[in-house]
Write a structure and sequence with these properties.
Chain lengths: 221, 221
């Protein structure tokens, strides 16, 4: 859009409109790369205004304060679908999700970590769990990895949709895991990894370029 | 764009241009939600045509075959930045990245898992590692979670940019970890989690709606 503003003085209104006309298909994400692949997963569509994936990833921050505006049920379902679209070892799909929005349970959830302000503010959250019984190779621990990838999908999708969210750890804390298992009546083999509160942001955070050359290596350490 | 097409017959060309003018800010991801937050992380911008985040997450698949077309160095750097933008426990940033593109090392890497066709095809890959020395609470294992979130960022960003990638496990396999540590001269405390080959896709995969009601629970199991 910067380019358009710069050139508008010289080109006049008609030129401006033509430039916009030329640029519009490129600027609409559903028209560009989507041509190379299925139009969308079944009936699911990204709402207009959804951030592009790279910008969403680079500008996502942990948001711990939320307005009282309710998050639509359909949005929560879209976030669950995003979580379920994450890859998993051997495609086992060991990750399961518990949506928490019952005020009584939310009140108890705040006690899982009394220092966490997001748990006090939350009106809806998604508990991401690993179901150990769904692992083929039970001796190896990798349900955590599947759950973490699913969690990151939810965090990015939430931010791209204009929502705030934050990974609030349950695993690997030995005190928090049984508290949440009891509260949500989870079977022993289902380990809660985290809870991700979802809400409209009541705080703003800046982002910068977080590339750190000290963490990037080439071919050897 | 659908709406524009439907109304164009009745409104004529000038009306069409005006509608496009009115719609353009909404259809341009960098202008819509971006108003609520910084315009972008420093000098980094998503290239035109980058998929929106929700579509990218929902249509991403594991891609194991790549064309010989080289992936630009700047794209790899953007993917590393995406990985570094993932959240981490206590903001420790324990995840480190090794880009592998040296043909000699790539040849050796194929031996880490001889059954993996993507390791044979790969011309560039990103090894995502957890640096245990960067963990504050060394008794707890959570560097894996940070690394998994960073990996998912790379997978989504790659797909959104039109690239193919796949999480190729190194951890938790007790035989693969030391092989890769030796090959890349990693210190003992740096554990390779996976390698993510990056390339232009030479295979196509369909995606459907992966929402599975059996994995979604509400307030209790």
């Amino acid at each position: 859009m910067k380019m358009i503003r710069r050139s508008s003085g010289a080109m006049g209104v008609v030129g401006l409109l033509l430039v916009i006309l030329m640029l519009t298909p490129v600027a609409t994400p559903s028209r560009s790369r989507a041509q190379d692949q299925p139009a969308g997963p079944g009936d699911l569509k990204a709402p207009p205004g959804t951030l592009d994936a790279v910008t969403a990833i680079l500008t996502r921050r942990s948001i711990r304060d939320y307005t009282p505006r309710p998050v639509p049920e359909e949005t929560i379902k879209l976030l669950l679908t995003a979580g379920m679209a994450a890859p998993s070892a051997f495609d086992e799909r060991s990750t399961e999700f518990v949506v928490v929005n019952d005020p009584k349970i939310l009140k108890e959830f705040a006690k899982v970590n009394p220092n966490s302000r997001q748990l006090k503010k939350m009106t809806v959250g998604i508990v991401v769990c690993g179901n150990k019984n769904k692992q083929k190779h039970k001796g190896l621990g990798y349900w955590q990895l599947d759950g973490a990838a699913a969690s990151e999908n939810i965090l990015i999708a939430a931010h791209a949709l204009g929502l705030g969210a934050v990974w609030t750890a349950i695993y690997p804390y030995p005190d928090r895991i049984p508290m949440v298992q009891k509260l949500l009546q989870l079977p022993e083999e289902v380990i809660p990894l985290n809870i991700i509160p979802i809400g409209y942001p009541a705080e703003r955070k800046l982002t910068g370029n977080r590339f750190d050359p000290a963490r990037a290596h080439y071919n050897r350490w």
